[in-house]
Recover the amino acids of this structure.
């Protein structure tokens, strides 16, 4: 456990070296709430979304967690291309501890970055009560580990920089736009038909639904089923990432 925390702390300290990137992300996420909220609040169909600021704010919690946890994959990809694998494998820690440390480091980045937006959500949407706080904490932890694992897995699929960047970008924007963060399920169904069901089962959509329920925006959420689905996503992504990362660390050539 101590070795896992040492590796995770190392990755967390490196996170703060991206000050300008962090500042840009914070501005972008706040702009999503303020600009999109003010702009679309008077343009949307009020029967679908009575208050767009309250609607989009829980989704920004998912987005903030996704962006910050996803950053760990970029560094893992750089390490593989620069062939520092032998150094990592020579560290006095087991390979399981090494991989768990990277997962934890990515997840901690997401949780710390998201914390400020949780406070903002309480001010704009409402304060979770009792059991709802457990849902918020559970959702944040599971989604942060899922996105950390997904990012590491994508960054280890290939050592080719261009192909690696393309894969990460495609997955990033698919998850970003094909979710219920900016649009309600009825609008997605009107535009994409049966594909809306697939959108509702993406990890970002599931997490956003749980946040909307926890912050009191909408009661029409099956918390138990969505929590189990999010746990399943996290387990699959972490397992795939674990084997892909170790395989790329140990293979030759």
């Amino acid at each position: 456990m101590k070795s896992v925390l040492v590796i995770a702390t190392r990755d967390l300290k490196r996170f703060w070296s991206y000050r300008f990137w962090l500042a840009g992300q914070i501005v972008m996420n706040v702009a999503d709430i303020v600009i999109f909220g003010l702009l679309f609040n008077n343009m949307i169909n009020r029967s679908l979304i009575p208050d767009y600021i309250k609607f989009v704010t829980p989704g920004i919690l998912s987005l903030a967690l996704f962006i910050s946890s996803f950053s760990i994959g970029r560094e893992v990809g750089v390490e593989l291309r620069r062939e520092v694998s032998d150094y990592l494998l020579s560290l006095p820690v087991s390979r399981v501890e090494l991989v768990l440390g990277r997962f934890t480091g990515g997840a901690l980045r997401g949780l710390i970055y998201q914390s400020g937006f949780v406070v903002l959500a309480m001010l704009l949407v409402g304060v979770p009560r009792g059991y709802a706080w457990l849902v918020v904490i559970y959702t944040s932890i599971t989604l942060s580990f899922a996105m950390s694992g997904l990012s590491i897995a994508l960054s280890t699929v290939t050592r080719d920089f261009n192909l690696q960047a393309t894969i990460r970008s495609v997955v990033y924007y698919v998850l970003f736009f094909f979710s219920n963060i900016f649009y309600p399920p009825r609008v997605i169904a009107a535009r994409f038909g049966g594909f809306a069901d697939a959108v509702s089962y993406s990890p970002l959509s599931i997490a956003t639904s749980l946040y909307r329920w926890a912050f009191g925006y909408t009661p029409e959420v099956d918390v138990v089923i969505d929590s189990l689905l999010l746990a399943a996503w996290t387990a699959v992504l972490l397992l795939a990432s674990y084997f892909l990362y170790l395989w790329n660390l140990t293979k030759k050539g």
In short: The radius of gyration is 19 Å. The mean pLDDT is 83. The CA atoms of residues 25 and 67 lie 8 Å apart. The chain has one domain: 1-251.
